[in-house]
DNA sequence: TGTGTGACAAGCC
DNA sequence: AGGCTTGCCACAC
């Protein structure tokens, strides 16, 4: 996040738009950020946010509705539970209830 | 400068 | 339905 023109800025902006108690998938965030199919970039960008709590990176999960984060999966699950998101012991999340389509706020 | 890898997604078998 | 393969971009060595 060195240049505002960098795709990372768009990713961060989208993640910040995710309402509390709601989660979003990498692909969804990527699409909203203007990077269709480039979900890997989202994961890579969020990887650098682990130190910065200015962005709710914990609200971003994979397409399977699970936390693939091997670096802070425990912390992410705790944060989601604090947000009101029901996270299973196997890091499974109900996308049908907590998935944010992005149409809540424009 | 070039090769390999990564918090993924979609397609195919 | 579930598992395997390919594509994509940016960054580390």
TrEMBL record:
Q: Which Pfam families match?
A: DNA_binding_1
Lineage, broadest ranks: Bacteria, Bacillati, Chloroflexota, Chloroflexia, Chloroflexales
Q: Which GO terms describe its biological process?
A: DNA repair; methylation
For this UniProt entry, the molecular function terms from Gene Ontology, in alphabetical order, are:
methyltransferase activity
User: Which InterPro entries is this protein grouped with?
Assistant: ATL_DNA_repair, MethylDNA_cys_MeTrfase_DNA-bd, MethylDNA_cys_MeTrfase_DNAb, WH-like_DNA-bd_sf
Q: Where do the Methylated-DNA-[protein]-cysteine S-methyltransferase DNA binding domain residues begin and end? A: 9-85
Recorded hits in CDD domains, A to Z, give: ATase
The protein here is known as: Methylated-DNA-(Protein)-cysteine S-methyltransferase DNA binding
Per the UniProt record, the source organism is Chloroflexus aggregans (strain MD-66 / DSM 9485)
For this protein, the parts annotated as crossing the membrane are: none
Q: Which UniProt keywords apply?
A: DNA damage
